[in-house]
Amino acid sequence: NQLAPKPMQTYFVPLPEADIFSSTFKVINTGARAPIMSITAIAISIDDSIVWYDHWEDGYDADTVTRQASTRVWGDGNASNGCAPGVSPCNNSNDRLEAGQSIILENWVDLPRNKNVIRFDAGDRIQSSYPIAVTRAEYPKTPGSLLAGAVEVLPIEKWGRDFIVPAGQDIRENKYSQAFEYTGVYVMAGSDDTIITLPDGSTTFLDRGESHQMRIPVKGARIKADKDVQVHLLAGDVASTYEMRWYSLLSEDKWSKEYISPVGDTTGQTRVVVFNAGTSTISVDYQYFSGTSLRKRSMSVAPKNVQQSEIIPTGSGARFNSTSNFIALSMTDTQSNSGSTSGMIYDWGFPLVPRNQLSSQVLIGWGYGCTGNSCGGGSSRSVVWITPVEDADLYIDYNNDGQSDQTITAKYLSSNRIMDNTDHDMTGAIIWATARNTGPLGRPVEIAAAWGQDGSRSYSGDNSALDLGTVVVPFYTVRVQHFVELDDDKNNDGVVNPGDTLLYTIRVQNLGQDDVQINDLDITNNGVPILTTYIEDSVWYYPDGGLAPIKIPDNTQGTPNPLDSTGIPNPVKLTKRGGTHDIIFKVVTQGTEDRIIYNDGTILQAHERPDLPFDVDIPLVVPAGQPKVTNDDDPDVCIPLEARRERRNRRRRHLLAQEEAFESPTSPFT
Fold it and tell me: Which residues of 247-258 are buried (b: 16+ CB within 10 A; e: fewer)?
């Protein structure tokens, strides 16, 4: 009786190979040669997940039902639309995804790019019915993986519209080992007709899956968009042969006053760079362990400027906090000497995750111990780094089968290096933490995590080493998503018009290691959206475990919709590792102007933060011939078709002008 699978997460593979080669690899190493090794790693969290892989080359699918010829659907039990790479034989019974399964999409991408050749590469869209972890990596054929970079890929709900770049080519002090002599940013759109405002005030237009690259001469550059985008910062030492670090960026509204870093590496001389975007000097306090002694330090960060921490030693993480928001980047291999290998033996970095966004468990998206997952009989060069926010027990499930394979007693702010000595691959592993001596199902404890090169396990010229790493994105034990779809399209035009019926679905999933009593979750929906009327007796609850749906009676007082007051009566528990609840209701649309219909809510968790907001919007379009009001300055108003066409024409004119001016760019941000 459960509703049909829906995409709970959507990702776009960032960093186009052609742009990375010409704008980054060739700048760092003039001897770099194509093709490009393109790697996208997908880790499956829950049994019977479904992944929709939508190649960009023949256009994106309208939905998961109407698909282009190249789109693959993995895990739906239908081999005719593909099985996950590595599955053999590909038949219906084998077309199933299991928790802990890793899908590593590796292929060489020739340049220039021929879109008639389908590849797993930048611009592809990935959707999943349960949350997954996705990692992106690239390196050129020559010199190979010593000139490599990787980033964690964020789902679109983690994207943003207002970004401040915390680094620039003006960071020239010797202590930074020329790490930012090249600083570039890549912006990718998730929607058509996205307007990007560049740091110099000029604009460019991107459609879904398209990317724009620019150099950042001065730290603190601001990039804005009128729709959500993902932004990545790539930095390196020009003509250094190898030194390079990649970072995903959080939009400014997601910055915080406190961060935890899980990486301490004495050999690699790991430091943290802090950026202050404010107009006045701030003080950032930080602490780390040196042996058993807790060291407390403070650094003053001038407006629009950066400051660097002391070396965070092996065995210790670090905590950074201030009274003002800031952003922080970890850098490994910060040797500032003038030697020929300065800053490029163990060079990697990652963005620190705000303390208030951490989770008690993580899923490793890509965790190779060596290049090509071949360590040549030696040990892993890359490891997973974990730091708890208090004394805790860490549980490591290497293959995510629900059984812990190893337990580590971890102290507050300790840096714990974890590797799989059996196959040197941590991809797909689940790691979670509970309060000390409370057992694997005890009180959750939040952890910070990263995956990357361990300086004590690598050496100069080590071709088995991956000179890269990423933050491991928090993986919340409870997940919620809000969907809306046309339920009754009066004129069958496929567009939401006044008088049509909308079906809303709130889907709640348990991804944790223990059952969740639904009473531990306070689900609040903020009422019927504006421009709609609630359809009485339309709320149904589809409980976990395939039980028969339950009708939730309307309120007898106040508003009839029970979701804004009484909620779910007699809810059943959400079973561990994949339990799902669905709650639906219907509304009829109304209105005389093109607008965005918006609905939202929040889940409050009893035992773990953060709170989980959910929202969804859909455009209401008044058909031609009906009186309507339009206002292009109102962000809630849907842009009319004529305006969309003009915007697309402006974009084409803009791109043509860019091509004509390519040989003599006038902006320093190109």
Answer: bbbbbbebbbbb
Q: Taking Cα atoms as reference points, which of 278, 440, 297, 286 lies closest to residue 355?
A: 286
| Residues 53, 124 contacting (CB under 8 angstroms) | yes
Helix (H, G, I), strand (E, B) or coil at 127: strand
CA-CA distance, 272 to 289, in Å (whole number)?
A: 15
Per-residue pLDDT tens digits for 473-493:
999 999 999 999 999 999 999
Alpha carbons 230 and 186: distance in angstroms, whole number: 8
- Name which of 53-57, 202-206, 284-288, 615-619 the model is least confident about: 615-619
Give start and end residues of each alpha helix (H) in 359-408.
none
Give backbone dihedrals phi and psi of 255, rounded to 5 degrees, phi first.
-65, 165
Q: Which of 422, 483, 12, 446 is nearest to 210 (CA)?
A: 12
- DSSP assignment of 513-528, as one string? SS-B-GGGEEEEE--S
Domains contained in the chain, CATH given: 1-158 (no CATH), 163-254+640-670 (no CATH), 478-630 (2.60.40.10)
pTM attached to this predicted model: 0.89
How far apart, in whole angstroms, are the C-alpha atoms of residue 365 and residue 475?
11
Measured CA angle at 114 (ends 113, 115), to 5 deg: 110
Find out whether 537 and 585 touch, Cβ atoms under 8 Å. Answer: no
pLDDT digits (tens, 9 = 90+) for 129-155: 999 999 999 999 999 988 999 999 999
SS3 393: strand
659 band by pLDDT with thresholds 50, 70 and 90: very low
Q: What is the C-alpha radius of gyration for the chain, rounded to an integer number of angstroms?
A: 25
How does DSSP classify residue 22? I
Q: Which two tokens stand for residue 647?
A: 């915007």
Residues 6+ apart with CB under 8 A from 36: 17, 20, 21, 25, 108, 109, 111, 138, 139, 140, 141
Give the distance, in angstroms, between the CA of residue 242 and the centroid of all CA atoms in the same chain: 26
Token pair recorded at residue 193: 């007709």
Question: Closest by alpha carbon to 191, among 232, 165, 228?
Answer: 228
